[in-house]
Amino acid sequence: MASDSASDTDTDGFKLYLYKPSLPAAILFTVLFGLVTARHFQLVFKMKTWSFIPFCIGCVLETVGYGARAYSATQTPDWDLMPYILQSVFILLGPAFYAASIYMALGRLIRFLEGQHHSVIRVDLLTKIFLMGDIFSFFGQGGGGGLLASASDKGSQDLGNTIIIVGLAIQVIFFGGFMVVTAMFHMRILRRPTSRSLSTGAPWQAFMAVLYFTSALIMVRSVFRMIEYAQGHTGSLISKEIYVYTLDALLMIIVAVIFTVRHPSAIFTYQTLSDPLGQDPGSFDNVPMVGQRPYVAKP
Questions:
Q1: What percent of the chain has a predicted confidence (pLDDT) above 70?
Q2: Which range marks the domain in which residue 182 is found?
Q3: Were 87 and a residue from 69, 167, 246, 260 both cysteine, which residue would form a disulfide, CB within 3.0 to 4.6 Å?
Q4: Contacts of 218 (CB under 8 A, 6+ apart)
């Protein structure tokens, strides 16, 4: 992947990389994220799943982040600061946008199954609460990442590090809460199914499994990042590039690929001979939720 030896280049005493960044690895993930990004945008506009736009933005950030990392790798050992800042901040922030779309997907699924009474949090508050946590996490990670990447003294480095850790801790707490809420809703609707959950042909249980698995991957990645920054700039995790790719890049590309195969449109996009509301049946946000006949799922 990359040499573990530290470079001789630094910026005002602060080493940008503690190893020689791997150009092949950075190019590989730039291409992978680029392809997945294109596919997600195609699905969003084709199926009108507007609630997955944040996920697309997260994919864009990952693509640009690894692209900037590839550019940094070509500069070894004389790295420019801006590509380092871009790869540092964008790769850090991408999963926060993933989380936003995942939070919204659960709220839509609960309404789709007419299972609002099974949710431990009122559905009209559920998405808002988790999105608020995501916003706090985003600003914490983004602000701390920008400060750390451009730090010129140890005090700024420590402050940036602390802010990032707080942002990641917020993400872990809210994502953990989200996983608990998801599991409790799932158990309740299995015990007392709604008429919609029994009659619909949509593969909603498979989508629940996707939510569990992708949430677990994002959680592992967030915990890794939190430990990495808690160790400081000379810690064992940040000083070896292999961890960036195995505990962040690989996990996040798996999440992105899974949602191209098990896209929310497979659940919420339905067709009917006549739509009495005049809505676009392919719209993620306009799917009839309560008191209407379930549509027949697309084959």
A1: 85
A2: 23-297
A3: 69
A4: 95, 98, 99, 102, 175, 251, 252, 255
